[in-house]
Design brief:
This protein has helices spanning 18-29, 60-84, 135-138, 142-155, 179-185, 197-200, 215-225, 229-235, 254-259, 308-316, 321-329, 351-358, 390-410, 418-427, 433-436, 459-464, 477-486, 495-511, 517-526, 539-554, and strands at residues 2-6, 11-15, 37-41, 48-52, 92-96, 112-113, 161-162, 193-194, 206-211, 241-242, 245-246, 364-367, 378-384, 439-442, 454-457, 466-467, 473-474. A hairpin with a 5-residue loop joins strand 16 and strand 17. It is α+β, with helices and mostly antiparallel strands and 565 residues long. 37% of the residues lie in helices and 11% in strands.
């Protein structure tokens, strides 16, 4: 996220300039060898997405290079922002910071730098208030604008994500600044509401995509990663503040889940169904439309409709039942936007299919091969939160990649009924879920075990291993990864100690020895001199938090949030 720190006025503001920043980044990237990254404009104009220039392989050298690659990307973005800044050398500093959500994003008053417009966003948002948040300004690309507007239009009005405010000893919901008046328009008088898709898409994530050796392996990875999704969300929690208040959530997921819900009233079961429409139980940003492997079909115990014509066509072409039904489920809703260049296409063009795939944002996404190149079938893991430091990011990325390697090498099996993953996803975003919640997980994680025993476990047991409530010893995900590592013959010096450092962080967070980023941020706010025990994150608190987060990210100060309790 791009923001400006005003060290004189003690404020932090987001910078809405990603289109020009990405142009500068790509221009500079073209002159460096090897290119560390590629850059993509995100929907909100204060965010950019960074990807490695070429996919990492499964060599020890590439595993070891992830952290350095992340460092180079962050340094590159900050250099461009400093170069572009009209305030360089003064009391202001333009920065790129890896955080999941800007704490006061959408809060009444000024949170945007440096320009402003004086009307509400075109999607009908009532959250804009006197803050200047015009959609043409806040998301510059036509495709992204159309997507935000069409979510609202398709639903038949604004949706909304009602944020459960953390109730501290002096918190008075009736006296919150701003949100109460907006909620009266929604006939609600409780917690503030992020009502626009633009707010929902203003949160970021760490996504990991793994390629299978073929479609079969990609389907296996997709299914095996689904039950892992809520666990890694809670383990990477980094979003305790939304709209300027401490909340009862530690993760971002529910914000887009609700605010990007484009289902019509009949699809949500609020009105009678119309011709050729379906009751759809989940938002586009829901949990999962189901397992894709045939052997796991019986575990799809949550009904999700599928487009019958698409299913019949795929079946006629020889696609097996599970994959055909999975793909047909994507077509029960119309696309959120259409690209003019794809209106006329031949049978070999997969633009329409990619459009449907790219606008269904679930826990894990099965990605089809692009039309060109040698990229194959992939599974995209989507639930992890962004971390402050390159070390943390690399730890989570490498852990997930190593876990997928362990799944295939050791023939692990974590799948549980979809309804149980849904139940876990209801718990995962909650405050201190890592320490306070238990999650349904399979006890015996190996293929070939006939009896599928599922019981509640703490994340500490799931990650580190231990005795479950079923009285059975669970080996733990990290010990399983370590078992996989012992099977490798790697001659590169330093690889194992580096990986062990990453695994130690994962273990320590799961055990509660090191706080999550969400826990550290919450403690920072509650111990700030301006905190009045009322859940509010003031302008000065927001500045101090963003400044220390940037100092930690840049290595200027010790990573206090990584210090053991």
């Amino acid at each position: 996220m791009m923001m400006r720190l005003d060290h004189k006025e003690k404020t932090a503001r987001i910078i809405l300039d990603n289109d020009e920043v990405v142009k500068d980044l790509e221009r500079e990237d073209g002159h460096s060898e090897p290119r560390p990254s590629t850059w993509v404009v995100e929907t909100p104009a204060h965010m950019v997405e960074s990807l490695p220039w070429k996919p990492f392989t499964d060599t020890a050298a590439d595993f070891a290079s992830v952290e350095k690659n992340l460092f180079l990307r962050r340094r590159q973005l900050n250099a461009i922002l400093q170069k572009r800044s009209p305030t360089t050398g003064r009391d202001e500093e333009d920065i790129g910071l890896c955080i999941t959500a800007f704490p006061r994003y959408g809060f009444p008053g000024s949170y945007i730098a440096p320009r402003s417009l004086s009307e509400l966003s075109r999607d009908g948002s009532i959250m804009a208030g006197n803050e200047i948040h015009h959609i043409d300004y806040a998301t510059p690309y036509p495709r992204n604008r159309s997507m935000c507007q069409n979510i609202t239009e398709r639903r038949g009005g604004i949706g909304g994500c009602q944020i459960p405010i953390f109730k501290d000893i002096a918190t008075d919901i009736g006296k919150l600044d701003g949100p109460l008046s907006w909620n009266k328009k929604l006939k609600e008088c409780t917690d503030p509401t992020l009502d626009s898709p633009l707010f929902a898409l203003g949160v970021s994530a760490t996504q990991v995509t793994v390629q299978g050796k073929d479609l079969g392996e990609a389907r296996v990875l997709h299914d095996q990663l689904l039950p892992i999704s809520p666990i890694m969300m809670a383990l990477s929690a980094a979003t305790p503040i939304l709209h300027g208040y401490l909340t009862e959530w530690d993760c971002r997921w529910n914000v887009p889940r609700f605010a990007c819900d484009c289902r019509t009233a009949p699809e949500r079961g609020l009105e009678p169904l119309q011709d050729k429409s379906y009751r759809i139980p989940k938002s586009r940003f829901g949990t999962s439309i189901g397992y894709v492997s045939s052997k796991n079909a019986s575990l799809n115990d949550v009904h999700f409709p599928y487009h019958e014509e698409t299913y019949k066509q795929l079946s006629k072409e020889g696609i097996d039942c599970s994959l055909a039904r999975y793909m047909a489920r994507l077509f029960v809703q119309d696309p959120l936007y259409m690209l003019e260049e794809h209106l006329s296409q031949d049978a070999s063009d997969i633009g329409h299919l990619q459009n449907f795939l790219m606008t269904n944002w679930q826990l894990v996404r099965l990605k089809v091969p692009p039309e060109e190149g040698d990229v194959g079938w992939r599974a995209e893991f989507r639930t992890m939160e962004v971390q402050l430091t390159d070390f943390e990011q690399a730890a989570y990325i490498n852990f997930m990649i190593l876990l997928t390697k362990a799944i295939t090498a050791l023939q692990l099996d974590f799948v549980i009924p979809i309804s149980q993953t849904d139940a876990n996803m209801d718990k995962a975003p909650l405050r201190d879920a890592l320490q306070k919640q238990e999650f349904l997980f399979r006890v015996e994680p190996f293929l070939g075990v006939e009896e599928r025993i599922v019981c509640e476990m703490s994340i500490d047991v799931i990650i580190n291993g231990g005795l479950t409530t079923a009285g059975i010893e669970f080996p733990g995900l990290v010990p399983l990864v370590r078992r996989y590592l012992t099977t490798l013959e790697l001659g590169e010096n330093g690889f194992r100690p580096q990986m062990e450092g990453y695994l130690t962080l994962i273990c320590d967070r799961a055990a509660g020895r090191v706080p999550t980023t969400a826990q550290w941020i919450r403690d920072f706010v509650q111990n700030h001199q301006e905190y009045q025990n009322d859940s509010a994150v003031t302008e000065r608190t927001n500045y101090d938090l963003m400044k220390i987060c940037n100092d930690i990210s840049q290595g200027r100060v010790e990573a206090l949030h990584l210090s053991p309790y």
